[in-house]
C-alpha cells in the first residue's frame, strides 16, 4: 500500500499531530506482529512509521536494530503490554485515550522508551493540569469591619485598593454628637481573596492559575 503526501491527525488537548509516512519497500510485508511482554499485537508498518524517529519505526524498517523473534515471527519487545495499547492506538489515530484505571505515568514511561515525541508532550501536559487541579486550594476570603462616620463613607469606599471590595454597610445609628449635629455611624464590611502561592498567601492568582482560567478550566 502506498500513501503520498502528509497525513494529519487531531491529537489530545488541542495538539495537532502531523506525520510524514514513508512508503514501505515493495518487498516488505504490510502487516507486522509485535510480541510485547508476552502479548501479541498486530498492526501495519504504516502505523508504526507514523513517528519516524521512534523505536518502533526503526525496528520494522530494520535500521541498526537487532531484535529477536518468537516462533511466529513476531518481534520480541521486553516491555509492559498494559501500556502498549494506548501507544499503538495513538499511532493509529493521533489521540490519547486511556481507561479510567490506567495510570498516565505508566504510558509516559513507555512513550519515552519508544521515543514518540508528540505523545510525550501530550501526556506531560495532561499530568501537569491534573496535578494542578488536585493541589489547587480555593482562595481564602478575608473580611474586615471598618467603622466610619457618614461624611467619611464615600471617601473610604472610593479609595479602597489592593483587592479589597465592598460587601455590606450597616447603619448603627447616631452614637456621637459633634457640635450641633448628630453624626451617623456605619459599619462597613469589606473582603479580599487570598490565593495560595509557594511564598505563602497572595492577593493575586498564580501565573498557572491565570493560564488555566484562560483555557476555560475550572479552578
What does this structure look like?
The longest helix has 19 residues, at 117-135. The protein starts with 5 loop residues before the first strand and ends in a 5-residue tail after the last helix. It contains 7 helices and 9 strands, in the order E-E-E-E-H-H-E-H-H-H-E-H-E-E-E-H. The radius of gyration is 31 Å and the shape is rod-shaped. It has helices at 45-48, 55-61, 84-93, 104-114, 117-135, 150-158, 207-214; strands at 6-10, 16-20, 31-36, 39-44, 75-77, 140-149, 165-178, 181-197, 200-202. It is of the alpha+beta class and 219 residues long. The strands form 3 sheets. Strands 6, 7, 8 and 9 form a 4-stranded antiparallel beta sheet that branches. The model is unreliable at 1-16, 18-27 and 206-219 (pLDDT under 50). 31% of the residues lie in helices and 32% in strands. GO terms for molecular function: cullin family protein binding. Residues 30-131 form the BTB domain. This is Potassium channel tetramerization domain containing 17.
Features:
single chain; 219 residues; 32% strand; three-stranded mixed β-sheet; alpha+beta; rod-shaped
Give a short overview.
By secondary structure, the chain is α+β, with helices and mostly antiparallel strands. It has helices spanning 45-48, 55-61, 84-93, 104-114, 117-135, 150-158, 207-214, and strands at residues 6-10, 16-20, 31-36, 39-44, 75-77, 140-149, 165-178, 181-197, 200-202. Strands 6, 7, 8 and 9 form a 4-stranded antiparallel β-sheet that branches. Strands 4-3-5 form a 3-stranded mixed β-sheet. Strands 1-2 form a two-stranded antiparallel ribbon.
